[in-house]
Specification:
CATH architecture of the largest domain: Alpha-Beta Barrel
Helix content: 25-40%
CATH superfamily of the largest domain: Divalent-metal-dependent TIM barrel enzymes
Order of helices and strands: EHEEEEEHEHEHEHEHHEEEHEH
CATH class of the largest domain: Alpha Beta
Radius of gyration: 22 Å
Structural class: alpha/beta
Largest sheet: 8 strands, parallel, barrel
Number of helices: 9
Low-confidence stretches: none
Distance between the termini: 42 Å
Strand order of the largest sheet: 1-2-7-8-9-10-11-14
Strand content: 15-25%
Length: about 350
């Protein structure tokens, strides 16, 4: 099955919540939605008002951790599967798309009812390999995205890795450590989404196709995410012919957990670096060519529009694919000779 969807809230949506985004994606004839973890604020506060409650029962915010004193008096996280005590400190996440865990659960249930496949994207600015505070902050944002993804039962959480720190070999070693830790601590076996590591569109950012293949080989619980405009840019415009798309899809298919998860838009690039995403009709990265590859694909696939035209281009790609599929079946159907 090929699914088409969008990254974020539909441009035509009057509402701005998670639940409304699911409804609008379905009404647009799309069956995938990548929910974006944007405009998030996390605050720490004394838990006195919540004493005796469970984090999931609080309706004013999304509790992402409960901090409790250990024997030495240090506050350490004890998770959200516990009753809150008076002396605890809670970490509250405030997000414009959902108020509390009930919103996440209700939106997830609605998505399954409407057959809209959910994924999530962690904040776009990530620097997971940074040995200083920015690395810890990025790790926390990925952790919180996984927790929210679990509550809505998203299939995967997609993340950028961030800048290389040191040479590529050193960066790969650090990436293996980071992704091994987070995919073990927040494992799919425990109900968390798979961690998807997105390909990069800039030479200073971790995420070339060789980077992702090496990482996926070493860390079994993550999967590579194929962003076509990023790969096209960083390779100087390599995705031109059917065989080019087929080759890169075959690489990513090796490590995909369910279907092959991809993102598509038009793109402008210079010197092996992406400069701007565009509508899919612009530039030399052609969805028509990808569609010709997809009609012979023997795997399920999701195509997420990250174009500035978002749902318009998602619907347009869906139409192009269906036309290519129709032509294939027409060619395979022999014409019957008219009988006298």
């Amino acid at each position: 099955m090929i699914r088409f969807g969008i990254a974020g809230i539909p441009l035509t949506s009057k509402g701005r919540t998670f639940i409304e985004s699911v409804e609008d994606a379905h009404n647009l004839g799309l069956n995938a939605l990548e929910v974006q973890m944007l405009r998030v604020n996390v605050e720490e506060r004394p838990a006195l008002d919540y004493a005796g409650m469970h984090p999931r029962d609080i309706d004013s915010s999304i509790i992402v951790d409960v901090l409790r004193q250990d024997e030495e008096g240090n506050y350490v996280g004890v998770g959200i599967e516990t009753e809150i005590e008076e002396d605890d400190i809670v970490q509250e996440l405030f997000w414009n798309m959902a108020r509390n865990f009930d919103d996440l659960t209700d939106g997830g249930n609605l998505a399954r009812e409407l057959d809209v496949r959910l994924s999530m994207h962690a904040p776009y600015y990530m620097d997971l390999l940074n040995p200083e505070e920015m690395g810890e902050r990025s790790y926390n944002h990925l952790k919180w995205t996984l927790m929210i993804g679990r509550a809505m039962k998203a299939g995967r959480v997609i993340t950028h890795t961030g800048f290389y720190h040191g040479n590529k070999k050193e960066s790969l070693k650090k990436a293996v450590e980071v992704y091994e830790e987070i995919s073990t601590r927040y494992s799919h076996d425990a109900g968390y989404p798979y961690v998807g590591v997105e390909s990069s569109g800039k030479t200073e950012i971790f995420g070339t196709v060789p980077d992702l293949m090496s990482l996926s080989k070493k860390v079994k619980n993550i999967e590579p995410i194929l962003n076509f405009p990023h790969v096209h840019s960083i390779t100087g415009g390599s995705l031109i012919e059917i065989k080019d798309f087929d080759a890169v899809l075959s690489e990513f298919k090796k490590y995909s957990k369910t279907d092959i998860y991809t993102e598509f838009a038009g793109v402008e690039y210079e010197g092996n670096n992406e400069t701007k995403l565009t509508a899919i009709k612009h530039g030399d990265l052609k969805f028509e060519t990808l569609a010709e590859t997809m009609i012979d694909l023997d795997s399920d696939m999701t195509v997420i529009s990250c174009s500035p035209l978002l749902e318009h281009d998602a619907q347009y790609m869906q139409l192009i694919y269906l036309r290519a599929l129709s032509k294939k079946f027409q060619k395979k159907t022999p014409m019957k000779k008219a009988t006298a």
